[in-house]
Design goal:
- The protein is 53% helix and 9% strand.
- It is α+β, with helices and mostly antiparallel strands.
- The N and C termini lie far apart (81 Å).
- The structure holds adenosine-5'-triphosphate and magnesium ion (MG).
- Adenosine-5'-triphosphate binds at residues 26-27, 94, 111-112, 116-117, 154, 156-157.
């Protein structure tokens, strides 16, 4: 057992001392078996939420309806969830309410894929009634029980299957894949927000290329916002090395660019992305259009879009053109480092100082003066030093008057 589990052992042992069952479950057990880094250690228990809260001094009732209580143990929060089944599914979605049960088996049985339905006890022994370990060894994704039933209970699982392909590089087991092909249309019942969560994870996975191929092959893409008409382009996306992109904004920009999306803002809004993210994507696309029309970055254009956006655009551009993004990024960084100023904050003078120098009331002229200074500093006409800029402005003023 490794560190994250050992640190959480106290939670499991305390529950056991009080006569309840408790196990590690879900993604952390799967990732442990795969030797992947583990983030959240989740715990399942036979104790009801009230019982969990009565035992531990520090708890947060985060999702009582679903049986989840966060227990703070040695300063680390753990999600402790009561064994449950999901009762009856309606409208191809997971229900709002769940039924608590006292058996681990039933809790594992309601989970989506066999690799996600393995429990581990406090001695490091696995409880694996659905052969999840074998699926992990064979690197396959297979539903717990009949795929057809499991996907019609909750259609989102079809997207989860494909995003796990992207994250783990596993294959879809044949029956599981066939069931997705047959039932992809049930995804119309799933909210965009839940699709977006899965799609963003899918784009961020090391095997995103295979996942895009599967989105097309299974017809799942037909039920994703703005993608139904993009079959050929989506297939294109399976030929790129996605992991060179390092942020959600870069991935959405790349997607929009390769798919030739016309109305970018409305496409991104359909996915219900945050305004912040939409702005970031638009900035990257704007920067991309600048480099593409001028073939290269000038100091002025770099300054205008800013370092972060320029580097993101360069990463996207390199990937689209099949160039070495690492090298291009280095070259751009060197260019950025050679700029006398990177942002207005780097300017050795502020708007307030300019107002003092001139002894005039503030107004649009201050912004104009700042812009003139920025351009001149960038062009190397004047040094980014307060007294020199002051002298230069004064000279300019008399010069302009004389003309
Ligand atoms: P990660 O957190 O790395 O994205 P995970 O496997 O932990 O992957 P979560 O969404 O955190 O995925 O869910 C935790 C566990 O809950 C899963 O491992 C699975 O056992 C179960 N689970 C999650 N979503 C579903 C679902 N839609 N249907 C059935 N079981 C699910
Ligand atoms: Mg998880």
């Amino acid at each position: 057992m490794n560190e994250p589990f050992r640190r959480a052992l106290g939670v499991i042992r305390t529950l056991k001392q009080h006569g309840y069952e408790a196990y590690f479950v879900g993604g952390s057990v799967r990732d442990y078996l795969l030797n992947r880094p583990i983030d959240d250690v989740d715990i399942a228990t036979s104790a009801l939420p009230d019982e969990v809260m009565a035992i531990f001094p520090k708890t947060i009732p985060v999702g009582l309806k679903h049986g989840t209580v966060v227990v703070l143990h040695d300063g680390v929060p753990y999600e402790v969830t009561t064994f449950r089944t999901e009762g009856t599914y309606e409208n191809y979605r997971r229900p709002e309410s769940v039924t608590f049960v006292r058996s681990l088996y039933q809790d594992l049985e309601r989970r989506d894929f066999t690799m996600n339905a393995i429990a581990m006890d406090d001695m490091g022994q696995f409880i694996d009634p659905f052969d999840g370990q074998m699926a992990i060894e064979k690197r396959i994704i297979r539903t717990v029980g009949a795929a057809e039933d499991r996907f019609s209970e909750d259609a989102l699982r079809m997207m989860r299957a494909i995003r796990f392909v992207s994250q783990l590089g596993f294959q879809l087991e044949e029956e599981t894949k066939q069931a997705i092909i047959e039932q992809a249309s049930l995804l119309t019942h799933i909210s965009v927000e839940r699709k977006t969560v899965e799609f963003e994870k899918l784009m961020a996975g090391p095997f995103a290329a295979s996942a895009f191929s599967l989105l097309v092959e299974t017809n799942v893409f037909l039920y994703l916002p703005g993608l139904a008409e993009k079959r050929e382009w989506l297939q294109q996306l399976s030929t790129y090395e996605w992991p060179v992109l390092t942020s959600a904004a870069e991935r959405w920009s790349f997607l929009v660019y390769v798919l030739n999306i016309e109305h970018v803002a409305s496409f991104l809004r359909q996915w219900k992305l945050s305004n912040r993210l939409i702005k970031d994507v638009q900035a990257i696309l704007h920067a991309l259009s600048i480099v593409r029309s001028f073939a290269d970055w000038t100091k002025e254009r770099l300054y205008e879009v800013g370092a972060a956006v320029a580097l993101s655009a360069e990463a996207v551009r390199s990937l689209v053109n099949g160039e070495n993004g690492e090298e291009n990024g280095q070259a751009l960084r060197a260019k950025l480092a050679s700029l006398p100023i990177q942002t207005r904050q780097d300017l050795a003078v502020t708007g307030k100082e300019i107002i003092d120098w001139y002894g005039r009331k503030g107004g649009p002229w201050v912004e104009e003066t700042l812009q003139k200074l920025e351009q001149s500093v960038l062009a190397g006409i004047v040094e980014n030093e307060k007294e020199r800029m002051k002298a230069w402005l004064k000279w300019n003023q008399t010069h302009e008057k004389n003309c």
